[in-house]
């Protein structure tokens, strides 16, 4: 899919800022009109016929009041080195693209790959116990051989513990924010956020200068869930934001694990309930989880280097897509289960990537759940 022009990006930002329009409606508008710029060129009679677009929204679009605001925002992002990733761009996270409620745009700062081979979401209570801190540290340390990217929310408690442990053990980590990138919340985490820029970074769907408010946190949690292959809940009370993240993860068919805690411990009631209600698998160790996910430790020998070079020969594809294409080139026709084992990718994730490659005319599916290059 081709990158948007500067004008299309500005028009898309303007739609985001138009009152009464969400991400689902924006996709609807662009789908009917052909592009964001064409939405603003459309007549009232055309807009009003689009499902979900009422009179109020149609008139708000026709005023075009948000175009100047979008132009200013685009300028600020360019001057501050803020990355803009629109849902039609190749740089937009592949894990989010299939989701019906995915953000229209993501803002980013830092040094990381949205499409890392493996991503792990670490979430939990802000009132973390010493047991929770120790457990989060152990999880991060044991994740090292699998070279994942760790996703969390930069909040107090489990989130910041996970981010800091990643920095200590040299694992890339990104913080998904409920504010604009220039409004680090809580402010006491500004130093950690700055350190994350070298080996990770910050991500949000909110424009610069946006202050965090109550409703932005659940929206932030859906992005954490969407970016993750697996969610690990370290500690959680009966109610809390991490349980909202779990709900999103289940809707997105992500794997969920919960760390069991002592009976009667308020900080573990949520985790124990998730396990009891079969909403999460019990977390016993990273190696057990990796086995269930179909992961294997990343190779570091010459053979692995050759595989990386082979993947690099597929220019224009993500790291994961290149890995799949390289394996298909090496093996010819292969069953999806075997491809999952060789790639270390979970079947759900692999199926999504194979479907995308089919749409791009690179891969064909065959009887017996087999795949091969076209």
Automatic annotation (TrEMBL):
Q: Which GO biological process categories is it annotated with?
A: DNA repair; DNA-mediated transformation
What domain of life? Bacteria
Q: Which InterPro entries match?
A: DprA, DprA_WH, DrpA_SLOG, Hlx-hairpin-Hlx_DNA-bd_motif, RuvA_2-like, WH-like_DNA-bd_sf
One GO molecular function term of this record is: DNA binding
| Record domain Helix-hairpin-helix DNA-binding motif class: where | 13-32, 45-64
Member of which family?
Belongs to the DprA/Smf family.
Name listed for the protein in its UniProt record = DNA-protecting protein DprA
What organism does this protein naturally occur in?
Dyadobacter sediminis
